[in-house]
Amino acid sequence: MINKVTMAKVASYKEQTELITDKPINLIYGLNGTGKSTFSNYLYDTDNDLYKYCNIESNGDFKILVYNQQFINDNFYEDSFKGIFTLSKENKEAKEKINELTIKINGLRKVREEGFLNINKIKSDIENLDTNYQNLIWNIKKSYDNKNYLDYCFEKIKKDKKTFFDFFININDNGTDEKDVTIVEKNIKELNTNNDLFQNIPEFINSVDNIESDPLFKNAVVGSKDSYLAELIEKLSSSDWVKKGIGYIDLSKKEVQKCPFCQKKPLILN
Description:
- By secondary structure, the protein is mostly helical.
- It folds into four domains: 2-66, no CATH class; 76-142; 144-172 and 179-193, no CATH class; 208-268, no CATH class.
- It has seven helices and seven strands; from the N terminus they run ββαβαββαααααββ.
- The protein has helices at 36-44, 69-75, 89-142, 161-169, 181-193, 230-236, 241-246, and strands at 2-7, 17-20, 55-58, 76-78, 85-87, 256-257, 267-268.
- The strands form three sheets. It has a three-stranded antiparallel beta sheet, with no helix packed on it.
- Helix 3 (89-142) packs across helix 4.
- The mean pLDDT is 78.
């Protein structure tokens, strides 16, 4: 049983005050602000640093049970329904944790929704830019609609704006030089109206295999020693350069090969 309670240097107990009793039941009463709540709060939480100058003396083992406002705050949690409480400190802590996490979840949902709005805005901006560029390129194309000589260039794409745009946006010019449209017009008109300007080059050699049997090569080509290069060719021992050059042609391949002399690709072996 508690015999003595000492209160000092806390709340209204500026000076040391003692409650001494030998009774099992004691009634403490007083005006507001005289220290009743402080007294019960000390008994409820004796290890709190606020009460380091307070003390309890007893004549044996005892257990303190306190029901005050602090006990209610710690152990009762008012639910979403007014006047309905959840009992136990653990339940209160769990409920508060759930509420805390719910607030965080709602915050993250808001961030996600804002992110979706930003994504949709960006998509809308891209679609608007795409539409603007389609219109821009289409209007350029329309400015040449009256020039019939360009019709064959746009045969499969000239009727649909998006198809036309997709075709041009994916062109890889590979560094091709730009040409003025007037030059293109002139070249196309010449190709279409004057067949004599560009004649087909006659076929020269069908196969390297037939070179030696071709009448053109029956006569040996002998360099003239009177040439101004004769002395240099003789000094370099390069008079047989044609034979050596042909040795670089792979006769087993049928595809296009580089010419060993000019390093271009005119050779197709049949």
